[in-house]
Structures are given as structure tokens and as C-alpha cells.
Amino acid sequence: MEFVGESLRAALEALSVAAPQWLSALVTADWVRRYGARIDSHRFPKGENVRQEWAEQVGRDGFTILEAAFAPGSPGWLREIPAVQVLRRAWVEQYHRDGEGVRWREGKDLPPGRRRLCSPYDPDARYSVKRGSGWCGYKTHLSETCEPDAPHLITQVITTDATVADTEVTETLHQGLATRELLPAEHDVDAGYVTATHIVAAQDRYGIELLGPVGLDTHHENHQGEHFAQSTFTVNWQARTVTCPQGKTSASWSSQRKSSGTPLARVHFTAQDCGSCPVHEKCTKAANGKWGRSLTLLPQDQQEALETRRREQLTDQWQQRYNIRAGVEGTISQAVRRAQIRRTRFTGLPKTHLGHIFAATAINIIRLDAWLTETPLGPTRTSHLARLGLAA
Questions:
Q1: Cβ of 310: how many Cβ atoms within 10 Å?
Q2: Distance of CA 81 to the CA centre of its chain
Q3: Across 263-277, 283-297, 317-331, least confident range
């Protein structure tokens, strides 16, 4: 509601300056009451029915402006006004008209979030939600050096719209570092940037050991007590068969692909073997049917890398080694507090990225100055209560 209301208001503001006489013939005093001030949620009427009527009224008003602007007798330059172009795209995405009038588009009738506008003032911005927090805009991805005897400097900055997943950035990050001859021997990353594909690709293409946790085998989440994880099955890649912990061999192996294009194999055991198995409850809860237990396998090199990482990340040695990644949290905090990257001063992805580059450069200058003047790092903040507990 805020988005469509503000999109229409932005178009009316632009038209009030560009074509005041043309607009005056279309609008009434009611339009001024509805769109004279910035559209904020606290000004919306109370009640779902009333709000629905308000949203549909906005839709009708928007179509009135668009039909007039694109009418054969209207000046052609009206439709070239950026705010009018945004209004037209927003109305295509958010509304439709039928015999009953103007209606919201909902659910699958809406464009994907990656393509859908979320701000009338920045067509590149997108809306996303992470851990329950939603925002309209972008994401910033930072990479820095972490040698103990050298200043920690930011080496790469990537800006994406808010809908881009972290896993989509890993390869781009490595390509950028390779171009500038800044590839590390070891790259410590958050779990969001690691998949089995990334682990193998980083090693094969760039000679990088990508260090980060991968997702655990989640097949056992519906099982209580002892269970058979995927790693307890023996895979014969040449024969394209899998043997279960009870010695039964799989009945089928089919090659498939994920929606992303990644190849995988689907392996099935028969219902006869699984149904008569004495440890059936520890393995699968699949209903009796054509198949029993099933497995999904990545290509051999990726599957082996995944299982190796799952074992390694449970060890104390690996955890201690991975502790170094916590240092980037200080970089993010510094970028937010000192460089104020939480909110962009610019419109559009290219300019926002340039602003992030400036922010990273400023942080590097601050860090180099601190290193040269032997200024110690600031301590981690500790609450008064925590200090009291430590003292006790």
C-alpha cells in the first residue's frame, strides 16, 4: 500500500511541475487529500475492508493518469517522464482490471521479487527478508585480509540487490580477486557462501581452500534417537549403486538436475527391502509404496567434498581454525558505524556500489593510519552486567 500510494504521489508531483495545466484538468480536491503528503502506513485507514477500498481507489486513480498520459492526443513527452514510467511498470506489476473493476495482484500473479519494483525512487532496489527483518535496497559483500602481522584491509566489495543469495556471490568474488591478483590461499567465509560446488570450484579453478561450514545431513530431522545418516551408505560411483548399512543394494540410479542446473543423482531402494528391514525406523519413514529409502547425491567430487567438510567441521581443530572469520563482524560494524553503509546516499545499483567502494577505501585509510601509528585495536564492548559477572 505504501509503495503504490507513493508511486502515484511521485508521478503526480512530477506532473505538477512538468504539466500543471494538463494535470489540473484530471484531478480534484480529493486527490490532494489522498496524495498531498507522503504516503506512510500510520496514515492508512483502519480496518481491512477500508484499506482494501483505499488500495483499489489508488489503483483506479493511477489508471486514470496513465490512460490520460498515453492517450493519442496527449503530449508524447509526458510518457517519457521517469516517474510516469515507474508508475506504468508498478501498475502492471501490482494491479489488474477485469469486469468487476481494479484488483490487487496476489501470490503467483505477482512478478518474482527479483524483478518487482519496491521503490518509486530507485528502480534498481529490491525488497528482501532475512531472519525476519525486511528491507528495500541492496546487499554489500566485503572481503578482507586477516594476517596477524599485517593490517586487515578490505580487498573486494560487491553490491547486489537485496534478493541475491549469498551463494550467488562466491564465484563473482573469486573472479574479481583473481583479476586483481589478490587471491588468498585460504578464504574463510560465512555459511551462506559455501556449497559443495563452491568448495570444489574454488580449489580447481583458483587454488583456494574455501573454509566455511556446510549444511548438515537433515534427513534425520524427523527421526528420534539413533538414525542412519547419508554418510553411512557406501557409494559405488563406477557401478552406480549404493549399499545401505544392512547390506542391501539400491534398485535404481537416475541422473537429474536441480533448477540451478547442478547435476545430481536420485537413488532408490525397493519397498520390499526397506519394509522387511529390522532397522527400518532408524532409516526412513517413507510410506509403503514403490520405493523405500531414497538418497540424493551430488557429482562424485562434490559429494566427497561435502561429506569430508561435514566431518571436519565437527572437530575442535576445525572450529578453532574457523574462529578467525569472526573478525569480519568488526569490519561490518565499522562500515555501518563509521561509513554509514546501512543507508545509501545514492540512487541505482551502480552509484550505490560506488558509494560502497568509497566506504571501503575510507576504512582502509583509517586502518592503515592506525597500523602506522601503532594504535591498538578497540576492545570488544562489554556490558556493565557482563563485567560484574566476570568480576564475581
A1: 18
A2: 32
A3: 283-297
